[in-house]
Structures
1.
Amino acid sequence: MQTANDPGPGPLVPIAPFGPVFARQEISGLDRAEEEKARLAAAVESTDEVVMIICRQGKIEYVNPAFERATGYSREDVMGRSPVVLGSHRHDRSLYIGFLNTVTAGKTWAGRMTNRKKTGELVHFEGTISPVRDRTGRVTCYVSVFQDVTGRMRLESIAEAASTTNSLGYAISGLRHELANPLNSIKLSLGVLEAKLDPSMRACLERIHKEVARMEYLLKSLKNFNRDEALEIRKLELSFFLADFVSLIKYDFPDKGINVALDAAFPASALCDPRALKQVLLNLVANSVDALAGVAGAEILFGLFKVGRTLIVRVADNGCGMAKEQMDNLFKPFNTTKKQGTGLGLVIVKKMITRMGGDVKVSSMRGRGTTVDILLPEA
Ligand SMILES: Nc1ncnc2c1ncn2[C@@H]1O[C@H](COP(=O)(O)OP(=O)(O)OP(=O)(O)O)[C@@H](O)[C@H]1O
Ligand SMILES: [Mg+2]
């Protein structure tokens, strides 16, 4: 690499894949060692692995063509800049602190990282970041070697969602069957009791009726969950769809002290099932309304964005938000913090959106609010 102390003439010659990448050398006929270095450098240039070299001051010194292909940034775009330029704001500070501590301790960090391309799209990388030492053992720079696993992660998430929902489906069918009959017979017996009981027992009966109704409601939601009707995927103009949806639900909210706004000013068509998308948005709105209980200046904002060929429908609230631990279990069935919740709302959201070829991303901060992004393929 060229440094302020090393301004010597001569072409830039790659000297090793994981050593300082470029050094100025006088070329006087390639000896074997130099030939080897050139071969190694050519390998780094032609590999599909995304290679980036960062100096000790944390600036990018080298990226290979695979990096340019995966991120959309050219070498000139990123040279001398901090890798923060690729930041996606999708990770906790703890991830960065973890890998900084590892590499500054002279060890190799391995893991997955989500970055943002020049176009704004997210890209998921898996690989390592290692310190590179010179002959004296001094760390001269850091090399990161990553693979673009965006496609693989999408497939993994679809497979996971499908397998969770399938096995859950079987369990739910059994449960519904076992519960529906006894519940019916409780209801019938209640009717008989009601006719014969002393009126002073009315309050008690009413409570039992309420609880039975709640169980029936739960069974109904489970039925909805299991209904595997074919989705009718078609081209849907999202800004009109959202305007319609918001104008429909808007009238319920002033009473609850919630302000609703929509920011979807550009035409954009997605491939999706309108009925399922409406169900998804209703589930998200219901969650926001719950989260906004007792919040002053409560707001639900709907938005529409486009990143590359992905359309993002956003539902954001400034409600109670969630702690990180809560977020980890967000899409697990029956995970609820609510007295009356089934904990299936978001599982159903994920299932429907995944079946439409999309994805769901949630970010939240305790006491600040929650943002749910529905990612849909552009038509
Ligand atoms: N917008 C939000 N703000 C704060 N917490 C949320 C939000 N959305 C979801 N949650 C949390 O995630 C949990 C799971 O949500 P989900 O919609 O799956 O189930 P639920 O709302 O509890 O029950 P159900 O939707 O089945 O009636 C909620 O109980 C709540 O703790
Ligand atoms: Mg819910």
2.
Amino acid sequence: MDLQYKPAMPADKTKGIALIGAGEIVEACHLPAYRLAGFKVVGIYDQDSTRSERLAEQFEIGKTYRSLDELLSDPSVQVVDLAVPAKAQPALVKQASAAGKHLLCQKPLAETYEEALEIEAVCREAGIKAAVNQQMRWSPAIQASHTIIQRGWLGELLQATIAVNVRQDFANWSWLRETPTLEFMYHSIHYIDSIRYLFGDPECIFADGARFPGQSCAGETRTLLHMKLPGEARGLIQDNHNHIAGSDDWYATYRFEGTEGIVKGTNGSLYNYPIGREDTLSFFSKRIRSDYWFTPSLEGKWFPHAFMGTMGELMRAIEEDREPINSVKDNLKTLQIVFGAYRSISEDRPVYLAEFEGM
Ligand SMILES: NC(=O)c1ccc[n+]([C@@H]2O[C@H](COP(=O)([O-])OP(=O)(O)OC[C@H]3O[C@@H](n4cnc5c(N)ncnc54)[C@H](O)[C@@H]3O)[C@@H](O)[C@H]2O)c1
């Protein structure tokens, strides 16, 4: 039973990648994943050159650029991989797309919907391929669930539930601790994107966000998101980052249910982020056997293996001259849900995604 969950790779892995940003996520995930995939990283740039030099040495990257212009004028760079805080992203996208580089943007694409729309327009007008590093779609659990759903083994889709209850105080990211929009914007955005990928876009959402007494972060760290998905399907994301006991009680689970089957398991990366462990998955389908749960082992993890998926899909889209499935345009829908969640909290009401159309 091949669940075809490993990221598809481009035929040509020789396209030159240059990274902008040499922080935590690049060290923990981008570069390890590209090494696993065999992608060609030609250079790296960070406004703090000590960081780029350190990673260049650690990952044997040939060039450390002194400026953005130096990176953008390097003809061996075809793809620019952005890994900077969202505030810095719009300006970098404008410059890199004007230089004709294809782009893997970081998530969140932008901190306002207007900026995200502008990024989409800038990339479209520049005629480049632009994708977003919304990589949970390529985690083993979500890709395997996608295969199971596509094969019809769940029947009519009814319920998508992702539930997380862990301790993560965001101590490594001082800028994250200061942001007033934390959990939906920086974390549940992955679950939102994955549920969209599996179930389609919701018509309407209702959100709530809360804090933990005395927490060090400015933004919400406990959230609930209800989504009215197509037909009779509903989505629920519940996320708490303030678990008060030991990790043996933590959970990070998913469960996708339909009229004919159920797939369920754990998102391993959340148990000891960013090292994590393998995802788990089990499923049953009346269309195969109604008395048996299949429990295949999944190789690889959300972090870093899924990062091969986002970059691999962008490279495949360049090769095949089509839009990547994680395109900036597609990501606007994920962001409608994120910004809709904040609107829902502040106005204490359900928000229809149609409210964002025509903006
Ligand atoms: N895709 C994911 O799952 C995932 C996971 C974690 C973080 N992220 C995102 O990645 C981004 C970076 O996160 P991080 O954890 O590596 O943060 P970090 O603070 O460790 O690193 C950010 C780096 O960007 C550099 N930088 C900032 N502005 C720059 C600019 N204009 N030009 C060049 N360099 C610049 C900083 O000097 C720093 O080295 C954030 O947007 C974060 O949301 C994504």
